[in-house]
Amino acid sequence: MLDAVRIRQRLPPAPRTRGNRDMTKLARSTQTGTRWLIAAGSLVIVGGLLAACSASPQAAPSSAPSIQVARPDAPQGTLPADLQAKLQEAVDDTLAEYSVPATAVGVWIPGQGSWETAAGLADIANNIPASTDMSWPLRSITKSYTVTLILQLVDEGKVSLDDTISQYVDGVTDGDKITLRELANMSSGNADYTNADFGAAFEQDPTKIFTIDELNSFMLGKPAQFAPGTEKVYTNANTNLLGAVVEKVTGEDFATALDERILTPLAQSQTEYLVDVDRWTAPHPVGYQPGPDGPVAQTQNLSILGAAGSMFSTLDDTRVWAETLATGALLQPATQEEREIGAPLESGPPYDLYALGIGETDGWWGHNGEGIGFTAAAFHNPETGASIVVFMNESNVFVNESEDEGKAHPADQLFRRIAEILKTT
């Protein structure tokens, strides 16, 4: 792991972990000032923020994929009262254990019913309670959408998972060896963009709206972490490079391609890709990180995550996505089978294995996310048909407040506890 550079250090030293999880080691913007923890690296040319160059002329806009899907319905009725009581106890215990201000949780089981709940304060300063219809950051759940777009293009014959990133983006170290597959499964070895150059650009203008190409520009030419395919280390840069591929091949901006190919077909009207915080207008929670005197509200710049983490959604829309993602409804069956080939991450979020923009934990397939005040988890069990979605408004939480014991990821912890409860129902 590279040494770290602290910029405008106004808070106590932040916990450090190996790898990157949704920028949790990148940004800490607080009410008391802006603090950045950025992996140090060699400089790239930044006269302005240089966009990643395309390897060939811009493609014409592509048509929407041929596979047609219907929005999956939630199970009818409510879950049994005794099961609801067990689930609520797990929610309350997890909030208390990790001192999380608020959560929104949904559990859906075919043949048994649905259950949604919200608890705690979405906004501490204004005493606003969380509700089940609020808009929440998906953070790295966004990665599963981005890789799905790539796999749709594979099904259409527009790209191959064995294409190298150099065919679409110039300047990536080992770009003539790194494949789209390796970017999707986090085995590319490329540098992340969360380095000193990016930190300096952000510090110069914390409100700047970065494009995907601008984010990618900060990792171009940087030394590789390892040879492609030899390790599995989770970075946002992997997915943002794939976002650039989506834009290159479809001839559309990422938000438009996402809307045409996934959000509109699934009627996910409450889900959106947002890079401008002023457009996050739906009722939503405030994100927090632990501070010496309690949770500290985080200032949001939505654009710094790009195609790796800039999506927002609601409980019910995320239920739809969890089921669609895990069942492969938007893809050819053979492509979904290939998608699920994976292995454990050597550095990154807690999954039993990580495959192509999707993780697996004890038979549950989906994705989680964390960063800048929020954690999220969205999983579906194809064997039982059950789905679990958890949103929480605190990130950078450690087990027993100890860096040595690692990240707690409270949303993922609650997902696992609910999954264990469902085993006995």
TrEMBL record:
Spans annotated as Disordered: 1-25
Domain of life: Bacteria
Domain Beta-lactamase-related, residue spans: 88-396
Pfam families according to UniProt: Beta-lactamase
The name this protein goes by in its record: Beta-lactamase family protein
